[in-house]
Request: fold
Amino acid sequence: MFGASAAAAPGAVAAAEVSAALHGPVLAWFDRHARDLPWRRPEAGAWGVMVSEFMLQQTPVVRVLPVYEQWLARWPRPADLAADAPGEAVRAWGRLGYPRRALRLHAAAVAITERHGGDVPNEHAALLALPGIGEYTAAAVASFAYGQRHPVLDTNVRRVFARAATGVQYPPNATTAAERRLARELLPQDEGTAARWAAASMELGALVCTAKNEDCGRCPISDRCAWRLAGKPAHAGPARRGQTYAGTDRQVRGRLLAVLRDSAGPVSQAALDAVWDEAVQRGRALDGLVADGLVEPLEDGRYRLPRG
Reply:
């Protein structure tokens, strides 16, 4: 067992030894405790997986579920979304936050329709070439939709690996080359098992090995976790970035977009001015929305969601 050596020298354990000790317990735990989420069901298909991955970035499952269901009911295939205006994607995005994701998902749907006959490609390189898709999303879709062997490094997985294998409380603020290397080394060799491992390690971080309230009593690998065996040393790295919202430009942007989403047509400057008293901040937020392609200014001084 690697725990004893990890307690003496966190991070000094060979990845092969870590892998052998982690895979079985985590996969068995996942078989018993995995949530029944719609994008995990066979009928979701690759498009359902892709939509979920866009929506779940920086947004909790409970907020995503209703929007996801409505989205797939309206646009069950990429071609259905591609045929609609990008502004309709922004409207349907609702209050999930970070609405540029809606524009990126629309752009990906257009590319899938034009380049791949309306089917989400199953090759990692082709996924990565789609607009709005980075390394994480390409790996997640290839793994979760097509059962391929790729390291899938979201915040939850990075935290599990940091604690269980490296012996530290939190991963770095930004993903490092060392983390990517460790994730590759921890992957099971079998493709199907590797895909299950990607989902299982993510679920463990989401439900048990959480950022603020880790539940070691429920963790299937607590007896071999390097961080726990080292006495749970406090985070010694750079301060972790906190999420703020109230009073920020993000909040103003959200209020401006809400007015546009709720309107069937263009809205006046006066209607937008009413949502925030501070004119300079309001103007900055509106300019940012226009620059990001989320809002279109019209010649008569009104504004609307983008039509492409």
